[in-house]
Amino acid sequence: MSPYAGDDRAMPERVPGPPGSRFAEIHRFESIDSTNRYLMDQARGGAAEGMVVVADHQEAGRGRLGRRWEAPAGANLLASVLLRLPPGGVSGYLVTAAMALAAADACASTCGVEAGIKWPNDLVDADGRKLAGILAEADLDGPAAGMVVVGIGVNVTWPGLDDRLEGDGAAAPPTPPVALSTIWARPTTPSDLLDATLVALEPRLAALETAAGRSGVAAELARRCVTIGQDVRVDVDGGPFEGRAVGLTAEGHLEVDVAGERREVVAGDVRHVRPAGA
Predict the structure, then answer these.
(1) CA nearest to 80, candidates 119, 125, 138
(2) Looking at 3-7, 138-142, 167-171, 213-217, which range is the least confident one?
(3) DSSP string over 102-156
(4) Dihedral over Cα of 190, 192, 195, 199: its sign
(5) C-alpha closest to that of 193 among 111, 88, 86
């Protein structure tokens, strides 16, 4: 793909996406506040499914729970895609999972890094360090109802602050960061990673349109989810709890065994708990 456009944020460079996919148009910025914010505004203005926005630098990038995502210009992949939720009450988490699986494929195909998926939305290396984070956002009503923006940040040559919050005594996030460049078998670029991710995402989105396809995506997620089998601490609105992650539901939600009782986690921060001496 061509280099990023200049610094005129109102006039992004527009280039075609991968042929044969729903990703017809990519908006490329040198700098922007947030790719998710820009794309959600486009959705509210009537943009069609498949629009992609990518930035060399984000001034106000965010991870889950409002954590900041910071990186120097050109160091990481910072992108968002606009999708329409498939009919039939498809879990929004399966859409996020489709992105995680596609990005894991892209890491393997472009630079030889085998990434696992840490529930709910991180890619991690073999040592459990964070390679990428994913953030999905949607409006429940209004002009963008039924649409979802899925953003991804991949640590390519700089691990970043791993969405750490600044000030107010906030705790560090549950997963330490690592850059692809410290572990890859061959170099890659943010543009190559984006292309490979979109190519791998298309068939998974198509799969979500059928019950059998959704089952296949959920099964693939379970196979590649490194959280399953781990002792975990889960922080949820009702307070933290600990247990053993034992599986995923058909919607992609985490199942945790807590003292013999299976508990379903729809949303929350999850830390892998290492036993003493491990």
Answers:
(1) 138
(2) 3-7
(3) HHHHHHHHHH----EEETTTEEE-TTS-EEEEEEEEE-SSSTTTTEEEEEEEE-S
(4) negative
(5) 111
- The rounded distance, in Å, linking the Cα atoms of 167 and 135 is 22
Class of domain 13-224: alpha beta
Fold of 231-272: SH3 type barrels. (2.30.30)
**pTM listed for this prediction:** 0.88
Nearest to 194 by CA among 117, 94, 68, 109: 109
pLDDT digits (tens, 9 = 90+) for 172-230: 555 789 999 999 999 999 999 999 999 999 999 999 999 999 999 999 999 999 999 99
Each residue of 7-39: pLDDT tens digit? 444 578 999 999 989 998 999 999 998 999 999
Beta carbons of 96 and 118 less than 8 angstroms apart: no
3, 42 Cβ separation under 8 angstroms = no
**Inter-helix orientation angle 190-207/92-111, to 10°:** 140
Task: State how far the Cα of 131 lies from the Cα of 123, in Å rounded to an integer.
Answer: 5
CA nearest neighbour of 196 among 265, 69, 81, 106: 106
Domain segments of the chain: what residues? 13-224, 231-272
Residues 6+ apart with CB under 8 A from 256: 232, 234, 241, 243, 244, 245, 246, 262, 263, 264, 265
pLDDT band at 60 (very low <50, low <70, confident <90, very high): low
**Cα atoms in the Cβ-side hemisphere of radius 13 Å centred on 37:** 12
Structure tokens at 13: 């460079």
Tokens representing 43 are 């959705």
Whether residue 230 contacts residue 268, with contact meaning beta carbons closer than 8 Å, is answered with no
